[in-house]
Amino acid sequence: MKKNKSLRVLSFIVIGYMLLALLWWAILLHRKNTEVFVLKSDLLKEQFMNKAGVANMDVTSMPEFQEIKSDYKRQMYMIFGEAIVFGCTLVMGMYFINRAYNRELSAAEKQKNFLLSITHELKSPLASINLILSTFIKRNLPNEKIKELSADGLKESTRLEELFNKILISTRLGQAYQFNFENANISDLISKSVDRFQNLHPEAKLIKNIQPGILHNIDQESIVSVIKNLLENALKYSPNEKHISVDLRKEGNETIIEISDHGVGIPKEEREKIFDQFYRIGSEDTRASKGTGLGLYIVKQIVQAHKGKIKVMNNDGLGTKFITTL
Ligand code: ADP
User: Which CATH code of 3.90.1010.20, 3.30.565.10, 3.40.50.300, 3.30.70.100 fits the domain covering 182-325?
Assistant: First the structure.
């Protein structure tokens, strides 16, 4: 990282030097051009004075002088014009190289974060399943305990499966995901998804405000995935108050889904970036919550495939509100 920084400083110094050299070259050429102009006008004046046999005369209104002057002006415009074009090209080139370089750096950072989080996400359920299986082998447990541990193991393996699904969907969304659009009752679909989520997470305090009977042309499976991802995030990033509301309504031709929580919120400057693949707020070393940075990427790809929009805003000063418009 430090090496990259000094390389960047060096490249700025080189570009700065080149710009100064360009300016100096333009000034020198301009000076030479002025000298030539002065010499040419003196020569012209001398010729006319000799012809007329006088000691002094004003030649500035003569056509010959006007021609020399317009020649001088043309040269001057050419010198400064070329200097400006070269300078701008250099600065623009530098700007684009710098931008591409920054993108590469942030992609590398995201990739590193993803690898760190994925390793963690894979390791912890695997470790739990290993522990459960080795307990089964080593100890003679009563039936009740076996049931309890098996349920825990199942939870962990479901988590693993969901993680792999996310990775798979996110890869396929960029290439060959087949959406199956049909006119469906989105009110029922969302209502059932919310109920299922509530059953899985009794600690969440879900409030449904769903206008019944809304029909929309959607791919049902992927819309369920949008709701699930947004609800999971709302719960995951609400350490204290777990009030989550789900609103669905029709406005003209548009179907609007709002999911709001009372959690940690998302700073303004992060709101564009959170939809990038692998992007997570903060650094993987300091972050407490588990995740992969894939959820919102998947959500946005699905919403866009439905020709819809998703935006994020403050939930009345506390927490976050995701508004999806289809
Ligand atoms: P993940 O949750 O796996 O990290 P996501 O793509 O779902 O990945 O979310 C990207 C980031 O956006 C998260 O790391 C989190 O910092 C932020 N985020 C998403 N939803 C919320 C929310 N409801 N409240 C606060 N932060 C959120």
Answer: 3.30.565.10
